[in-house]
Amino acid sequence: YEAKQKRSGWSVFSERNTQIGRQRLQLRADLENGLSEEQIKLYYQPKVSLIDGRIIGVEALSRWYHPTDGRLSPVHFIDLIEQSCRVQEFGRYVIQNAIQQLSIWHRQGITIPVAINLSPYNLLDPDLLNFTLTRLKDYAVPPNLLEIELIESSTSMNIDYISARLNDFKDAGIQLAIDDFGTGMSSLSYISNLRVDNIKIDRSFITDFEQDPKKQAVVTAAIALIKSFGSNVIAEGIENKSQADLLIEMGCLCGQGYYFAKPMRADEVETLLLSNTSLPLA
Ligand code: C2E
Ligand code: MG
Ligand code: MG
Ligand code: MG
């Protein structure tokens, strides 16, 4: 009986896999139009000062308005893009859109930085820095308003190469952040050799950490380590006030999370920025 159940369980699983496989093939095929028709839009999630809830920056997060599947979140398509020949095109697309938005805000006197997510693969694009600097110039946006968050990717790419490319961006005045700190590949020697402005402690360490002394010990150590690199600490995934309070006590003064604000459309975040609001909204 057990064997039979296992077998049927397996067959259901495999059927589902084929279905997902088929969907992914379709999505991959849809990518071309997705990019050329600008179906992928940037949402923006505020980063705040934990002390007074002031917005200190925003992070651009992609959403795909797929013509038949509706609004897709990045889990459904980022790795597809990274495995496709469109990865460089996508990196440039995101940079271009973020800079356009920055210029709109800059002209209204809003001078908060916009961070975009890039994967190490994007750094293989030999002309990416040139592309970025040209766009910044064309749109009259100061380089220090753009920040690159290097996301974790399962990559065996040469770490010295990644570091050198990142430092080129830094030399050009663009801000650098390490995303999802504490997970994945980022070796400490690699990070300590980068001039990183911000390091973001991964959400998994913040989730429920107010009830978990082990996680608290890890977060305390991470904060000390990040400060020893000379970088600013940002906590990801703050979902309630006790987490924010505990982080302040530990010396982490910046954060991001649903407690303060979810990712939102450009016009929504613009309203917030123009009203000088502190988060969370009461
Ligand atoms: P990330 O850069 O670490 O972004 C944070 C993710 O956590 C976002 O998910 C955000 O919506 C979510 N988040 C923020 N606060 C909270 C919270 O309090 N609770 C919970 N449960 N989640 C929270 P999202 O937008 O689905 O993006 C997922 C990942 O996809 C990003 O993680 C980033 O690695 C990648 N990604 C998103 N947009 C882009 C992009 O334009 N380019 C590239 N290369 N990767 C992107
Ligand atoms: Mg990020
Ligand atoms: Mg992150
Ligand atoms: Mg992440």
TrEMBL record:
It comes from the Bacteria. Signal peptide: none annotated. Residues 24-277 form the EAL domain. This is Diguanylate cyclase. It comes from Marinomonas profundimaris. The chain holds residues 373 to 654 of 654 of the full protein.
